[in-house]
Amino acid sequence: MTLWMELEQDGFEQLVWCRDRESDLTAFIAIHSTKRGPALGGCRLWPYPHEEAAVQDAMRLARSMTYKAAAAELSYGGGKAVVIGRVGDHGNAKRFEALGRFIDRLNGAYWTGVDVGTTAVDMDHVALHTPYVTDTTGSLGGTGDWTADMTAYGVYEGIQVSAQRTFGSRALAGRTIAVQGLGKVGWALCRYLHRAGAQLIVTDLSVSLVEQAVREFNALPVAPDRVYDAACEIFAPCALGGVIHEGTIDRLKCRIVAGSANNQLRDPSFALALKQQNIMYAPDYVINAGGVIATAAELDGEGTFRTRSRVKRIGRTLDAIYTESARSNGTTTQAADDFAELRM
Ligand code: NAD
Predict the structure, then answer these.
(1) Nearest alpha-carbon partner for 321 in 310, 307, 337, 306
(2) Is 275 designated active site?
(3) Among 1, 175, 235, 264, which one has the highest count of C-beta atoms within 10 angstroms of its own C-beta?
């Protein structure tokens, strides 16, 4: 399928090639949908091997932002910017300035922010040329781990709702939960779960993070490649995407998969495989929407208290999706897509 056919089939509105020879910027901005409002989606900086890989990533990420924002019932659409480059490269400041000029020409159809590889300082450079940027230095989104904390809070809510459905109680005291990835979100999630009395099993590529979690949360450590075999009731993938696949699915002992990672299923068909194994799957873009909800709340001028209560609503949304998937006897991912598409 050609790129143009893909853009048409997936309902994209706009794809912008951003080339600034002076700063040597090559970037793409994909706007999937502005039907519900301006497109939100951070800016990723990544050493893509070629332009096609960058475009594909921008499109995939922009589309899922539309679904995420719609499922969270935000008055925003989905977009994404990707810059081809490396973190720490000499000249990045000028490149982000140039990107700011491209974003400004879109007149607010797309708002950017921090994503993988970018920081508040990069957004400061973007902000020199456009107001359509979040997560700058000093803003709530650009401060500490606010966004990650809100993502973790949404996942925590989603885990409780999933536990209610599966075990008949939201209470997590005494439940065994395996957390894969102890980065910004995984760590914050462990804090919520530990406070709720859960017994944690943890893994990360960083040994020191694992050791710290053992000390702070009384967690049981497990090697990264053994986490799938862990004797747990809930598995929370909070590292990379694509972790549920033919090599891991049969090893899972849990009754629930619910975590923050984007695109947890290597292929959509694994949603059915999980269902057939009697494992409840919390669709990733629904349960991990806390970050984008926090961004939207900041744009809407809401404070931290209201933001938290908006993130908490992820639990209600997830519950509605579980009800629908039970009624239709379909997968939770199909129910989530239907839920989002209805709102798009
Ligand atoms: P992060 O980079 O801070 O942390 C990721 C952690 O995972 C790192 O500590 C890393 O060492 C670990 N890791 C990587 N591969 C691993 C493996 N194979 N086994 C065990 N650990 C491994 O990232 P983050 O911001 O915490 O995000 C975590 C996930 O949640 C990502 O998939 C991200 O896309 C998603 N997400 C994050 C946010 C947010 O607000 N930060 C919002 C929505 C979704």
Answers:
(1) 337
(2) no
(3) 264
